[in-house]
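for the recovery benchmark. tokens below, seq after
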């Protein structure tokens, strides 16, 4: 199949996928779009929202619609790395045998990821970056496709451990889930308080998702679009020559090169699902906020004056 035909096919499958997910998830269109884009790019996503906004249900529904294996890990303060990766046990013949942990799945829901100590959070780092894990000196490859979709509650800070910058940088998108509108909430209440159960059809196979990831990487990008993305990321760094006064006044730290790579990959996927064969600057702008917002660190002055990360990114766009 030619690449042009493959992109057209992807547009149709994307609309079908959105319809299928919409049977269960009412509203949250932006969150669904960005989560699917991260999967098509082979990236991980951090879903941030207050309790009850269907973060877990969203991940569950997407994994059903994509036809992928799904494991949920509930992150708690007493969770150990071996609870995620697996551990070696002695079998009846007194040989060590490796019992695989829940990380050996296609989609991992890391529920409330900031509730577990850094030692356990770090167990995910190798899996997220290298798609492999090391246990007792032995190296194990993870089955592809592999995604971590983590959830975090932004208001409850009691008993939580902030994610280190190195781990945050490994998430392609940070996706904020908003409260539903009045009509969406009415529809949610109607659909969840009756006996009627919706069933989700699985529309993809693992092989098809890997093929989509390869297709996205093949999409050509004009030099001016790449230069725009790199300049945009450069503007977030307070010490760079391109930084605006707002950035110098309110940011401690800007985004690194991984942000530039992710902006281009996500722009390619954003263009492809809209039926375009090459991304333009508008595609970069469309994905900038969820890609940059968790890679930028505000200073105390920004906190005191109520300046948000989104305000700063919007000023650069």
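predicted aa per position
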């Amino acid at each position: 199949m030619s690449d042009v035909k493959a992109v057209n096919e992807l547009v149709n499958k994307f609309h079908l996928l959105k319809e299928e997910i919409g049977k269960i998830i009412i509203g949250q269109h932006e969150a669904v779009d960005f989560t699917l884009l991260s999967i098509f790019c082979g990236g991980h996503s951090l879903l941030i929202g207050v309790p009850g906004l269907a973060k877990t249900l969203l991940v569950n529904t997407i994994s059903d619609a994509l036809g992928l294996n799904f494991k949920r890990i509930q992150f708690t303060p007493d969770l150990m790395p071996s609870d995620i990766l697996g551990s070696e046990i002695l079998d009846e013949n007194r040989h060590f045998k490796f019992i695989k942990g829940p990380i050996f799945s296609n989609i991992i829901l890391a529920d409330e990821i900031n509730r577990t100590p850094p030692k356990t959070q770090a167990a995910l780092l190798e899996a997220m970056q290298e798609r492999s894990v090391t246990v007792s000196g032995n190296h194990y490859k993870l089955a592809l496709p592999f995604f971590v979709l983590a959830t975090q509650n932004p208001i409850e800070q009691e008993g939580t451990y902030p994610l280190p910058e190195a781990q945050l940088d490994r998430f392609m998108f940070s996706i904020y889930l908003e409260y539903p509108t009045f009509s969406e909430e009415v529809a949610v209440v109607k659909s969840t308080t009756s006996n009627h159960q919706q069933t989700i059809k699985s529309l993809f196979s693992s092989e098809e998702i890997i093929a989509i990831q390869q297709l996205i990487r093949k999409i050509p990008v004009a030099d001016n679009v790449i230069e725009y993305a790199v300049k945009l990321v450069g503007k977030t760094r307070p010490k760079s020559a391109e930084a605006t006064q707002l950035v110098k006044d309110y940011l401690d730290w800007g985004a690194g090169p991984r942000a530039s790579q992710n902006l281009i990959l996500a722009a390619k996927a954003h263009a492809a699902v809209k039926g375009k064969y090459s991304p333009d600057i508008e595609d970069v702008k469309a994905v900038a906020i969820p890609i940059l917002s968790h890679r930028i660190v505000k200073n105390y002055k920004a906190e005191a004056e109520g300046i948000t990360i989104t305000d700063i990114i919007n000023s650069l766009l």
